[in-house]
Task: structure prediction
Amino acid sequence: IILDHKGTIDKYMGDCIMAFWNAPMEDDDQIVNSLEAGITMIEEVDRLNDELEKECEEEGRPFFPIKVGVGINTGEVFVGNMGSDQRFDYSVIGDDVNLAARLEGQSKTYGVVIVIGDQTKQGADDFATLELDLIKVKGKKTAVRIFTLVGRADVRDSKVFQKLAPLHQTMLDTYRAQEWDKAVALSTECRAMMPQLDGLYEAFCERVQEFRDNPPGPDWDGAYTATTK
Result:
């Protein structure tokens, strides 16, 4: 799927695939292609899980679904043969590469499957996206704005998403204003509109409870500090 969408597979790291776009061949649609690859991978995983579940049911075995998280970030990086005379690899390095890895790790935190960075979001007009948070990821002192990719243009233009998007943003605004009761009520309302984001709104409700017990203080900038990669 990555290759079909003009991506370059960098390496396999355990159960992770690292890939990048716009090198070695330039790709003017790198953001769209990377987002399409992410969505298509998730769709293929869902199809595979359906097959595996059917096989397990027929054979009387327990079914354990495959779960995938995707992190996509856009920025300037170094690309080329990295290493030494004895051993080198064509790869990319840079702060924006590290951030992409951190975003993938946060998919579990927010209960979503695809997390994208701010610069990627700026090129995702043809997709349905929702802001997730202002977050200080491991290794960065400055908070970054992150988003989740919900679907393609058909989802973006749907009546449900058109109603959900502004309500979701209001939920974030009330959360950052420390209006905890309103934030929880709006989270519940959003969850009912798009059940596939149940994990996201559950995560915010749990976060609100933590802040009720340990208020962030009047000078809080709304940023959340990640404790895991």
User: Anything to note?
Assistant: The longest strand covers residues 128-136. The chain has a mean pLDDT of 95.
